[in-house]
Amino acid sequence: MLIDFYGKECPHCIRMMPLVEKLEKEAGLKVEKYEVWHSEENAKKMEEYDKGRCGGVPFFINTDTDAVICGEAPYEELRNWAGVK
């Protein structure tokens, strides 16, 4: 499962959104997205997955490989994180 934790007003998250959409479209993948700045429930979910690795957003985790991305990343890194060849 691919998960993107983000903050609605986070500029880094906003810049990553088109890359996530491109990844979903090109690779036919689904990335689950959780807004954490305005949802205590989602913030708790992020803490459970983060385990102190990133501590902020955007935070991406691939639950199949435990690969994470903390912050902004280039598209190629996002593809690698998702396991796209």
Q: In sequence order, what are the helices and strands, one letter per element? A: EHEHEEH
Q: Quote the beta fraction.
A: 15-25%
Cα-based radius of gyration, to the nearest Å: 12 Å
Helix and strand composition category: alpha+beta
Strand order of the largest sheet: 2-1-3-4
Description:
The chain has helices at 11-27, 40-50, 75-82, and strands at 2-6, 31-35, 59-62, 67-70. With 85 residues, it is an alpha+beta fold. The chain has one domain (2-82): Glutaredoxin. Strand 1, helix 1 and strand 2 (31-35) form a beta-alpha-beta unit. The longest helix has 17 residues, at 11-27. The model has no long low-confidence stretch (mean pLDDT 97).
Looking at this protein, list some descriptive labels.
single chain, 85 residues, alpha+beta, Glutaredoxin, four-stranded mixed β-sheet, 3 helices, 4 strands, 21% strand
Write the layout of secondary structure elements.
Elements lengths: L1 E5 L4 H17 L3 E5 L4 H11 L8 E4 L4 E4 L4 H8 L3
Parallel strand pairs: 1-2
Antiparallel strand pairs: 1-3, 3-4
Can you summarize this structure?
It contains three helices and four strands.
